[in-house]
Amino acid sequence: MDIAKYLIESTEEVFNTMIFMEVSTEGCMSEGKESIFSHFSAMIGLSGDLMAMISIHCDAYIAMDIAGAMLCTEFDDVDDDVKDAMGEVANMLAGGMKSRLLDDNIDTTLAIPTTVMGKGYSISSPKRGNRVVVPFDLTQGRFFVDMKYSMQ
Amino acid sequence: MGLEQTIIDATKDIFVNMIMMGATPGTPYQGKGEALIDSVTGMINLAGSHSGLLAIHLPTQAALEVSGSFLDLEIEELDDDVLDSIGELANMLAGNIKAELDPTGSSIQLSIPTTMHGDQYNIERIAGTSSLCVPFYLDDGDFVIELQLT
């Protein structure tokens, strides 16, 4: 089980095949207790043999760009469509993780996505458990894929 | 038993037995993703026969008091111990609510808790879910338990 590799593969798969945006990454940040400062997050839980929370964090304008590329439109505000689209991106990403984990005989169930936005907030993870954060670059800017997990 | 009562019982149980603070429930209401100002939120996902989110929203001051009482420490600023204990609180609350919704213990699973904090943020309601919020009053402060369920 290589969570960082699975996250990179799943994210590239979703962006290449569903959103049609080029993403690149230099790999995960040091696995640790990063606190991420964010303006928009979409997150979804995984439970079962492995319990996890998978999130995408980015600035509001990146969320609008990603949602716009996915829905072939342009957004000038983070409206319900943007939130739904980003929730769906989190959902697809979690689906990619679920199938990769299943290949390792780790069976998980997806919860449903939630979005959070604000003028500035930080997200932190429990001390027990593991965390992998992978920054991805788009031409427009950067977003982070964050997975906190612990084995059952 | 209604969901409101399930939330109230689960919360009172944890506050009385684990945190050693009294928490008096107020009138439940439907959440609409109201902005949270200078707050701390602990949240955890539920998956399986019931899918959704359980969150506890506390103003920062109340978060300090609750985690201080929970950890039996004097806490003056928002640090990792506070964030960790609020996440753990969400985990315990979800565990209690799960026990009520799913007596066999096999049809609902929990994810791991996440904590967020900030000056202003909104937790959006998940599409297709209802958001039930129950406010609770402490001697000096308040907090809200939110349960979003499909």
Automatic annotation (TrEMBL), chain A:
Residues 40-136 form the Chemotaxis phosphatase CheX-like domain. InterPro entries: CheC-like_sf (IPR028976), CheX-like (IPR038756), CheX-like_dom (IPR028051). CDD domains: CheX. The keyword Glycoprotein does not apply. GO terms for biological process: chemotaxis. Pfam families: CheX. Keywords: Chemotaxis. This is Chemotaxis protein CheX. The lineage of its organism: Bacteria, Pseudomonadati, Thermodesulfobacteriota, Desulfuromonadia, Desulfuromonadales. It comes from the Bacteria.
UniProtKB/TrEMBL annotation, chain B:
Pfam families: CheX. InterPro entries: CheC-like_sf, CheX-like, CheX-like_dom. SUPFAM superfamilies: CheC-like. One of its GO terms (biological process) is chemotaxis. The keyword Magnesium does not apply. Residues 40-136 form the Chemotaxis phosphatase CheX-like domain. PANTHER family: CHEY-P PHOSPHATASE CHEX. This is Chemotaxis protein CheX. Keywords: Chemotaxis. The keyword Cell membrane does not apply. CDD domains: CheX.
